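Box 3.1 — From sequence to structure: non-specific serine/threonine protein kinase
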Amino acid sequence: MIIMALNLNNNNIGFSQNTFSLEELTTATDGFSDANFLGQGGFGYVHKGVLSNGKVVAIKQLKAGSGQGEREFRAEIEIISRVHHRYLVSLVGYCITGAQRMLVYEFVPNGTLKFHLHDKPTMDWSTRMKIAVGAAKGLAYLHEDCRPKIIHRDIKASNILLDDSFEPKIADFGLAKLLLDPALTFQPEYFLNRFSVCNFFCCSYVDPAYASTWQLRDSSDVYSFGVVLLELITGHRPVDSTQSFLDEGIVNWARPLMERAPEDENYNALVDSKLQNYDPLEMKRMICCAAASVHPSAGLRPSMSQIVRALEGNMPLHELIVRNLDASR
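Predicted structure (token representation):
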């Protein structure tokens, strides 16, 4: 599916998603009650709701601070609403009431990858592999099949939701662009005022090239996805103060191990010690994908479609590290 860019000078834009009143969403969430509270993140607060037609949804109240006017906001919503993919959370509609803005999404019932990987009993290998492949396909769709392309900007385990079958769905794509003033997006002071220093720098999801240059490319999403792969492989959090070897982050710890493991075909130093069984060939593929994704040079990282092919065994692993000649990445 190709998403066409919108012309903001056209006064006849037709919006395809539903609009909701504040009253409707207040009723749906029982007054945004604590009982329906699902969580909060860098972009806002999320409540579970039931619409008048019985549809269960997740309603995100966006934090104040968008530099966009209402028309530009609606145009960005129109772009997001046209994105439909098996591995992406679908936008159902939105609400604008004064300065307050809310987004209504399909409800994904089984929580986040972060919760199931780090706060629940051990996730088996086949489930981890299924999540990696599905999330990679969703991100590849955003980068390569949408026009304009959508760079997520906030890929992490807590933004990968799971359904009852543990199929992944990527959440929050497009929100960074909605909430950040386009004229200020890449200024460090502006960005860090909206995302805590801890969350932005210390959690190891952020591409060092982006953190130093403030030039955003899809290779920054690839880096963040590589960190998620490392979580799936190792069972470790990106940073863990209780583990001294993770003080500098999972990437710095894992990088030398990833260089040796595929050659030696000995993955014990990397693999989650709680995993009872795993497919060695699939593990090799995921380790090679993770290593390529977090390559220090952004131009040498693979595209997400290459990662999909490599994870599925449809691409030679030595081709993952490629010099990217496309300056747009």
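Summary of the box: DSSP finds twelve helices and eight strands in the chain.
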